[in-house]
Specification:
The chain has 357 residues and is of the alpha/beta class. The protein folds into two domains: 1-101 and 268-357, Isopropylmalate Dehydrogenase (3-Layer(aba) Sandwich); 105-256, 3-Layer(aba) Sandwich (Isopropylmalate Dehydrogenase), CATH 3.40.718. It has helices at residues 16-33, 48-54, 62-66, 84-98, 163-180, 196-208, 221-230, 242-256, 296-308, 312-325, 342-355; strands at 3-12, 37-43, 71-76, 103-109, 127-133, 137-146, 154-160, 184-188, 216-220, 237-240, 263-267, 275-279. Belongs to the isocitrate and isopropylmalate dehydrogenases family.
Amino acid sequence: MMKKIKIALIPGDGIGPEVVEQGVKVLHAIERMDQGLSFTFETFPWGCEYYLEKGIMMDANGIDLLQKFDAIYLGAVGYPGVPDHISLWDLLLKIRKSFDQYVNLRPVTLLHPSFTPLKKRSEKDIDMLVIRENSEGEYAGAGEWLFKGKPEEVVLQTGVFSRKGTERIIRFAYEEARKSQRTLTSISKANALNYSMVFWDEVFEEVGKEYPDVTTFSYLVDAASLYFVSDPGRFEVVVTSNLFGDILTDIGAAITGGLGLATGANINPEREFPSMFEPVHGSAPDIAGQGIANPLAAIWSVSQMMDFFDEKEWSEKILATISSIILETDNLTPDLGGKATTNEVGDRFIEILSRAT
């Protein structure tokens, strides 16, 4: 039977529409090559530029509109004149929380030694999956602003770590480590955060008793940040909180070639709601419209989408094609040392992918 996948497109701001266009081209190419797959798309114009025009980041019934889709493909959000907390809370976090996308998957994989600023590191030295808690923690939005504007002004930002939220992300990570036969490292900060991170560490140990076959490690986030740079090979599967995951994965991007190659998936594992796939390089409004945006992170997120829908063969073929195209300097965008346009990279990518089938 043909598998039909309905995808909501939110191209967003800046270079978002340019890179999403290339990802959609790849999906159309897969559809032509695989008669068992069919994709349908609907585009929503939401984002910061929409906010400047309409005063809202997304329509009031936006969540209801997205509910009917199997996946959301997001380009980028951010634009001068719109505060970051508005763009984050009124679109990205609203989608993540409404659809219980509590798993954030961020691969930190070096595709070519020339891309890393680290000395004498090869592909085998930097290859990990960071699993970030994506629904609560430090980004729960809990807190209070007291006596605003007065000398005694106090701001409280509360991290929320529920038993349900903490256990399910840690269990997901254990399952991934077991399935892939890799080590699992938990990253926290229990020496300073004497409630939330002590609790995190205790849950990590409790759940670990059910997975005696998984080799585990536990680091404080400051030490882990150092090791991400000095010894990244010690990490295979990593699980951590919302804030720490956000920071550590940007370090991961820095050691693997920059944000132009960084991708992320926001997953609802139970598939009760749509999951969301996105490059995480931001909207880069300074280069928007110039045709030089790197689309490889957006295409990588298509690989994550295929993996989520159990199309592992296509997921692997996309990753293999990324590994192939990065060897063709002339067919890369300027950020990777090439002179190709965004469209030219997408077209060449499809040529290589077609040969692999």
